[in-house]
Design a protein that fits this description.
With 493 residues, this protein is an all-alpha fold. The chain folds into two domains: 13-178 and 207-271, Growth Hormone, Chain: A; 273-493, Growth Hormone, Chain: A, CATH 1.20.1250. 72% of the residues lie in helices and 1% in strands. The chain has helices at 5-13, 15-33, 35-45, 50-70, 78-98, 105-134, 138-160, 179-193, 215-226, 228-239, 277-280, 285-317, 325-352, 355-375, 380-394, 397-408, 414-441, 444-474, 484-492; strands spanning 170-171, 210-211. A two-stranded antiparallel sheet has the order 1-2. The longest helix is centred in the middle third of the chain and has 33 residues, at 285-317.
Length: 493
């Protein structure tokens, strides 16, 4: 068997809650990757310039960060957490359905800000609840949780692809534009996106005429795909007797939650509850360093994921590689496929090895791949190979770091909110930073930034290991560094 009977027993006990948390992360993944391939269609739909449409990305990332912080407010009871997940997943379906109705870039930015807030709340709550559910065994189930992000990120581009326009998005008012002219305009636009044409702000889209894009169907299909997820959360609330019709009955898991006031053991009443003086009194300095260093590692590694997925296409079509646009488009898909496959493989690897060992191997592999991509910048073949290996290597960093940090801090729940917020911040900040550097210094700066960032992240992880060693000497706990298989054997004796 891949997993021992103890873990299977835990999963069978909590299977409905576990599957529900996994499904809401599929909803999160749907929102992660659809903007990239649909951005030109949305530019046309809103009759906006490319400079204006970039505010949509910023709105989503900024409010995802705010949503990650807001998610900590809903962790007080199981009722609050599930109600928030139900509302947020339903909001995502509403946003998908409303996007085709947004004919101005400001309305589209508002819609994506709402979706980003919902994504942030989902990110914090699902991670936190799964960690509290499985605690020392959470690494395996966190890997599966983050696998569903990759799965959702794969589905949304596949749904959108058949509905993306091949040539002009808007028919000119005088109806005199022929197909060859439309194709050349689109080619010019794509070249501008890739940084091959100077003066990006001078690129113009036709803002008068009839919109011909069919991308609306893609968003409506994704809204329908997402609808069963809030229904699954409602079913879980019904099963746990948390709906109003069960207000006279105690919740099914009375030891963990209460409809009115039951608080999770070790939990905190607010997002900043961990910073309350009563909570901090007597804490050693290592307690704060774990949060800072763990958040720093995820700031840089999630920043790599966000910036690589956003700009590897631009890097591929730029000199010296000068790949065909369609060929370069496969790089983003390959990156997400690799991340998804890596998280699937990490479900088993987390069972066999400690989170510390997996993190060490992953971060070393990320540095090696980034250096190789920097050195072999002229090789198209290695760019595809490196993209695949990078996705596999970096895929397990977030769930492993979350499991490791919460394990060190005895599952107080503080670390999850801090780490999720740090990861969201890194993804937002590094995308802006890398995009600005590429715009001013050229495409080669893309790999250089990735290499520098990966080295900083690895350095912070080494500091974290040192702090962990100091912390262990003060409070020895040998079981924390024993692989899960050995712990299972010792517990069964």
């Amino acid at each position: 068997m891949l997993l021992d009977e103890r873990l299977w027993g835990l999963f069978r006990t909590h299977w409905q809650r576990t599957l529900t948390y996994w499904s809401v992360f599929f909803s999160f993944g749907l929102c992660v990757a659809f903007l990239g391939p649909t951005i030109l269609d949305l530019s046309c739909q809103t009759r906006s310039t490319l400079q204006q449409i970039t505010w949509v990305f910023f709105a989503q990332q900024l409010f995802l960060l705010l949503g990650s912080i807001l998610g900590g407010l809903f962790k007080k009871t199981l009722l609050f957490s599930l109600a928030a997940l139900c509302c947020c997943t339903f909001i995502i379906s509403l946003v998908f359905a409303a996007i085709p109705l947004c004919h101005h870039v400001a309305l589209l930015s508002v819609a994506m800000a709402i979706a980003g807030t919902a994504m942030g709340v989902i990110d914090t709550i699902a991670n936190l609840q799964l960690v509290k559910l499985y605690q020392k065994d959470s690494a395996i189930f966190l890997q599966a949780l983050h696998f569903f992000i990759g799965l959702g990120a794969l589905v949304s581009p596949l749904v959108a692809d058949p509905f993306l326009a091949e040539d002009s998005y808007v028919l000119r008012a005088n109806w005199t534009a022929n197909s060859s002219s439309s194709s050349s305009d689109l080619q010019h636009l794509r070249s501008s996106l890739a940084g091959k044409t100077p003066g990006l702000h001078n690129v113009s889209l036709y803002t008068s005429g009839i919109v011909t894009t069919r991308v609306s169907y893609a968003f409506w299909i994704m809204a329908l795909i997402n609808l069963p997820i809030p229904a699954a959360v409602l079913a879980l609330m019904y099963h746990e007797r948390l709906l109003p019709c069960f207000s006279s009955s105690p919740p099914l898991l009375a030891g963990e939650s209460s409809v009115g006031s039951g608080v999770y053991q070790g939990g905190h009443g607010s997002v900043f509850g961990c910073c309350h003086p009563s909570s901090l009194r007597g804490r050693p300095p290592t307690f704060f360093l774990f949060h800072i260093l763990g958040g720093g590692v995820l700031f840089f590694t999630d920043g790599i994921i966000g910036s690589y997925a956003s700009f590897v296409y631009t890097y591929g079509v730029s000199a010296p590689l000068s790949m065909r646009h369609k060929t370069a488009g496969y790089l983003v898909s390959l990156f997400w496929v690799s991340i998804t496959a890596g998280r699937l493989a990490s479900i088993y690897l987390s069972y066999r090895y400690t989170a510390t060992r997996l993190l060490l191997l992953s971060l070393v592999a990320v540095i090696i791949v980034q250096f190789m991509l920097l050195i072999l910048y002229f090789s198209t073949v290695f760019l595809f190979m490196g993209t695949c290996v990078l996705g596999l290597a970096i895929s397990s960093v977030f769930p492993c770091m979350l499991a490791l940090t919460e394990d060190i801090l005895d599952y107080k729940g503080c670390a999850t909110t801090v780490l999720v917020t740090s990861a969201s911040t890194g993804e937002m900040v590094l995308q802006v930073l890398v995009g600005s550097v590429m715009n001013s210094k050229g495409s080669y700066a893309f790999m250089l930034c990735g290499t520098i960032v990966s080295c900083i992240g690895f350095t912070l992880f080494l500091l974290l290991l040192y702090v962990q060693r100091v912390h262990a000497q003060r409070r020895p706990d040998p079981a924390k560094d024993v692989p899960m298989t050995e712990r299972s054997k010792s517990e069964g004796m």
